[in-house]
Each structure stands twice: as structure tokens, then as C-alpha cells.
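Good morning C.,

I know you're traveling, so I'll keep this short. The sequence:
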Amino acid sequence: MIPVYGVPEGVDALALVRRLGEQDGPVLHISRDDTRLAALAEEIGFFGPEIEVISLPAWDCLPYDRVSPNGAIIAERIAALSRLQASPGKKRIVLTTVNAALQKVTPRAALAGAGMRLTVGDSVALDDLAAFLDADGYNRTGTVMEPGEFSLRGGILDVFPAGEAAPVRLDLFGDTIESIRRFDPETQRSGEVVKVLDFHPASEMAFDTAAVARFRTAWREIFGPGAVEDPLYQSVSAGHRHPGLEHYAPLFAEGMETVFDYVPGASVSLDHQADGAVEARLELVADHFAERRAPARSGEQPYRPIPPGMLYLDREGWEALLARGPCFEFSPFARPEGAQGVDFGGRPAPILAGQGLAAFEAFAELRAKWAASGRRIVLAAWSAGSRERLTLMLREAGIKDVRAIANADEARALPSGCVALAVLGIERGFLLDRMALVAEQDLLGSRIARPPKRRKRADQFIADATEIAEGDLVVHQDHGIGRYDGLETVTVNGAAHDCLRLLYDGGDKLFLPVENIDLLSRFGQETDGVSLDKLGGASWQARKAKAKHRIQDMAAGLIRIAAERQMHEAPLLAADEGAFAEFCARFPYTETEDQAKAVADVLEDFAAGKPMDRLVCGDVGFGKTEVALRAAFVAAMAGTQVAVVVPTTLLARQHYRVFSARFAGLPVKVAQLSRMVTAKEAAAVRAGLADGSISIVIGTHAVMAKAVTF
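The C-alpha cells, ready to paste straight into the viewer:
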């Protein structure tokens, strides 16, 4: 491993661009996570706009999960692997993550010939094309909305090819392709004309007869003949794709490979802190494998995990792959005196934020200094709108020579001293011998604008008749459950109206104009045994009235509970400011605004003298545990025992480690209670809870057993 110092974030993209210029083949860079991968891809596009960049993201699910990875991620991975397989030695930058690099992938031979290219004028039978898409892992649906879906209606085929940004619509006359157009999945309207269309598989594993036979044989060899009753095995044997099937991909393949096999002879580099991410991932895989091997809980379907070595690399395998050739490890720090390695020369840019208008005066002084030293000056704005506002702010501060640019090549072409304004999502600027890049947050302390979030529609909302298929159950808000029976043109007073034909009990029909489709919603997933309502009948109105009364009863119950809570008293819990500040300082990250607010709200509840009624919500990795840690600290230091209840033994172990590390050195004893703890240890924990010597216990539902007293 060759250390490369002086490579803070942002400079790493420039280092990869330069490394590609020195390399005859591809460059493979392994980021610590998907967030850094996405940022790095954008930065490489700025510093090397002519360079081909291929990103291979990791699955968005946990090891040995019961759910499949997101279809869009599968599509992106397949498109990336297909491009790499087609030209493995081409000069390009390949970006992936630690999680993706540690996971084995489908062999190159399986992708050879698995795609298809279509052009306008080609002859192809629709049935053959549909069979090809089905064999390649595409799902047949009524309306194409997501990658990996296709729909066939007459002579029109809608398909969302893997790796494409939008779905396409093929219009055929007989067996001849007359047109190929992209279309908007929201409105279903056709748009841009496409001349050539490349299909990649939509699944990372083959699902043909031979692959299913390999799966069945391998399953029986690993789990024994008694495991053939497993629903997953039964589903695959019947030719159906079961949720979470991707976690058994090695059983379908003749052999698995790694991303390193797709880029032979590549120059390999690792992110700063990538080694720590490798350790964490290997530990997570081992923990989840151990958890899945444990006996299933009551009412839960047993999960049969394949050995980790079949799908994941171990530490020895990882190090062997890195040892194939030169491997570089980036570090944002300067090279220590006497240390081995290379110093790229990058340093963090100065932070000017917090000075108000003086920040622009300081920037003007630095600009003159940097221009005198021959540096090109780039100011990175987070969005096009913030770039426009920064331009106005700079000119108001007396800096008139400002130009908007698209990439680093345009910045190098500007006159000395000119400030190049780019749209580049970089958190912190940097300095190099020939360039000074200042990020928006370096200058202002916060972003002027953030990228808009994509809005998603509710699953039950029906916006277009193409979203439902004939035979689907729907719910009319006035008439109840009916069955959609297709579109029909109805003439009323000499005017034609397109209507949805809905069937009700007794063969009654309701014709609903398409402009009133908002009165309908989908019934749901389970439709077996559902009875249709009768038009004009009282049953639907009675059910609506009953539901309304139940909601009112629930609301009354909630109000009663809230009133009782206000009448009760709870002990006042307050934190010693000095001790609490010291405990908070152990948190290795900066609190987000929402984290700080959640902690403040919890402390306010503690000091209110009333029973707390608070739910802290947040996505994975957004800092909920830190809120719980600080709440537990306040309660424990006030002499109150704390119980942290989690759903699985795996989470119990993980939280026990985190709590033990954070409370180390404090007069607080942390214990664990779950079925993974020995009987002797469990008895000691129960005794400690009963006599008060244990302050914090972390465990599963075992914490709520009758034998546990606090």
C-alpha cells in the first residue's frame, strides 16, 4: 500500500484524473461509502470532463436481508458491469465503494451476449422480445414506472432498460420497429426520439432453466433435503422470483467474480478511512450471518443463510486482491517527516465564514495573493441559483472580474486573477500549487440553496387510466369496491366521453368519466375473497360510517390518555451542565440542527415533571442513537435506571458496544440482556437491576420479562 498524502476531498478527484493520464489502462477507486462515490463522480466530471466515469454502487440492503435491493440500483450496477465486460482494458475511471468491492458479482461470462441492441427499422417479433426481457430479469407490469419493468399493449412495447435515465416506447408495425421514443413515466407522454437502444439484463443473476437447476442442487447440498419445504426454494422451483433472492446469487451462478476481475491491470486507490469501513463491513456481515443462523423467533419464517465466503470477500481475500499490483491510499494530511509515500500537495482552503461582510474583504485579499502566485481561483457554488447570487454578492463587494464556468479547463483559460464561478457540490475547498478552490460554505458558512428533493407519489393514488389493468379492484369514494373493466366511449347529448367501466355486485355497471378518476383509489394488494359492493346499496355507506365512528373513538381514547398523562407527575431529571457538556464532547461528529433540537426537546420533557410522550424519527445513520445516549446519561446520572429495548439480538450487541464505549470511565454500569447472553450472565444482570447496581440495560423483549425488576 502506497500512502498518498495531501489529498483532501476534492483533490482526490484531481489526483485520479492525473493518475489516469499516467496509466495505460483503467483506474479503480474505492470510496468509503455511496455518498462519497456520488460526490467524487461529480468532481471528476468537473476536473476531467472528457473522461469516462463508471460508478458501481453497493446494494441498499443489509447482508442476508429478506428484501431485494432497489431495482434502480440493480439496473445501475448491471449497466456498469456490462460496460466493463464489453471493454475491460479501456482507459476510464471506475468508482465503487467498500461495500460493493467486498461483495462478489456475477461472472463476466454470464453477461457476454446477455444484452440486445435494437434500431429503428429492425425486425423483431414482439413475443420473442417479451420472452427475452422476461429471461433477462425484467418484470411485466401494467404501467412502466421503474427500471427493469416492461409492458406490452398491442403493437407498443414500453420498457425501462437497465442503466437508462428514462423508459422508452417501441412502436411496431407488424414485426418492424417504426419508432423508438423516450417517455415520461409520470405522464406517459412520448418525447425524445432514440435511434439505437441497448438492453442490459435487469437482474444480477440468470434465472433460466440451467440456473434454477444449479440453485436447487446447491440448496440441497448446503441445507440438506429437509430444506426443500422452504418457501424460497418452493418459489424458485415454481419459476417465481422470491423477495431477497439476490442474497442467494452464488447458488444460481457457475462461479462468482469480483469487480477487480472486470478491470484487469487497473491502478487501484482507496479513500481515506476506507480500511476502517472494510473492518466495519466485515464485522457487519459476520454479525448478520450469526444472527440468521440463530433459531427463528416465534411466528417467524426461518432464514437459511449461505456461507459468507460464497457472496463476500474475507480479510485475506481482500488483501490478496489489493496486493495484485500498486495500490494507493489517500490521506488528507500532510506527509509526516520521514514517512514513506507521496505528498500530492493539497491543503484545505481557509475558512472565511463567520466574519459577515469582512469575509468578502478577506477573500479579495487572498484572491490577489493567489493570483500573484499563479493560482487559478475557483469559487464552487452548490447550485446554479446560488452561483447567480454569489456573483451579485462578489460584485457588490468590489470583485468585478467574475466568470461562470462549466469545468476546470474553462477556469484554466481565464485571465490571471479572474474568479471562476462553478456549480460543484463540494463541502470544503482546497489549495494546490496551480489552483485555489473555495467552497460556498468556506465563504458563507452555509449553503445558499440545496438541491430539490424528488417527490414521490402515494402508492394508492391513481392519476391515469393506464395505471390500472382490467380486472383490478378499485375503490370509488361514493360507491365502494368495484372491478375495473376497461375504457369505453359513451355518447351523451351528442358528445362522446371516455369513461372507465366499473363492475359492481349483481353485474351493475358504473361509467366514470376519465376526468373524475381522482374519485378512485387502488384497493390494495390482497384481493382474494373480496366481495364487490352493490350500486345504491347501504353496505358501503354503513362501513364508511362505522369506520368514521371507530376513528372518533380512537381519537377520544388518545385525548383521554393525553389528559391522564397531564394529570400524572414524573420525577424531575436535570443534567449537570459541566458533566453533560463533557459527555457530549465524546461525540466524534458535529450535531445536526435536527439532532440538537431533538436533544433539547427530550431534556425539556425531563424537566417538565410529566410522563414523556415523544417519538424520535429518522433514517438509518441520521443520529437517533446519539439522542438516546444523551437522554440515558441524564437519567442515569440522576439516579434513574434506563432500559433500552431493541427488536433483535444483533442490535442489542451493537448498542451495548456503543453504550459501553461512551459511558467508559463514568460511574454508570451498562449491561446486556438477550437470549444470546448465558443463563449465568442473565441472572447476574437481573440481580443487578433489582438491587440498582446496573444503571443501563440494553436488550430485546427479555428486558420486559416478569422476572426482571428495577
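Safe travels,
E.
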